[in-house]
Amino acid sequence: MVQTSGAAASDATAAESTELRVDRTSDGVFLSTSLQFALPELAEDALYKGIPMFFVAEAQVLRHRWYWSDKQVAQATRYLRLSYQPLTRRWRLNTSTVPFSNSGLGVVLGQNFDDYDDAMAAVQRIARWKIADAAAMESDAMHTVNLRFRLDVSQLPRPFQIGAVGQSGWNVLVLRSQRLTPEPAR
């Protein structure tokens, strides 16, 4: 059973999460959503010049406690890097569970796209992302799932970081919460 307990929050750009779905199965808790946002013009221009853009999706599962603050029972993070290769005129999306470093990509899923719209559609779609193990969830407790998706300007080259501070043209932020009701007793 899933109940929506919050609406999407938007920042300078019109960003929201539609169709947020949280499924609790015997394998764990899975999150699926479609994000709706347009990349800011400054970020899109930087992409076409070969500067990769970094996104971070963070999911947090909290167990409701009446006597204290809610307890975090699980957390998952997904890192995305979207880049444009001007020579081949192709888009590349890398997805990883660890932050990208300059020493290499590590273990990532890489996808290539011929079109900017197709690449952005892949960034904006999260499908069956495992955010918690089944053992972490108590079947008789109320849980809340918090989703946060943002453009990570801290991974941009240093001149862009300095120029992006305080400018709303670099903000992409989606916040969404959803409540999981306890499973009925069997």
Helical residue percent?
10-25%
Structural category: mainly beta
Report the mean per-residue pLDDT as an integer: 83
Radius of gyration: 18 Å
Q: Sheet with the most strands?
A: 7 strands, antiparallel
Number of strands: 10
What is the percentage of strand-forming residues? Answer: over 45%
Low-pLDDT residue intervals, each spanning 5 or more residues: 1-12
What series of H and E elements makes up the topology? EEEHEEEEHEEHE
For the largest sheet, list the strands in their spatial order: 1-10-9-4-5-6-7
Shape: elongated
User: What is the end-to-end distance?
Assistant: 14 Å
Q: Helical segment tally?
A: 3
Structure description:
The protein is elongated and about 55 Å long. Helix content is 12%, strand content 46%. Residues 1-12 have low confidence and may be disordered. The strands form 2 sheets. The protein has a 7-stranded antiparallel sheet with strand order 1-10-9-4-5-6-7. It is mainly beta and 186 residues long. The protein is built from 3 helices and 10 strands.
Structure summary:
This protein has 186 residues and is mainly beta. The chain is built from 3 helices and 10 strands; from the N terminus they run E-E-E-H-E-E-E-E-H-E-E-H-E.
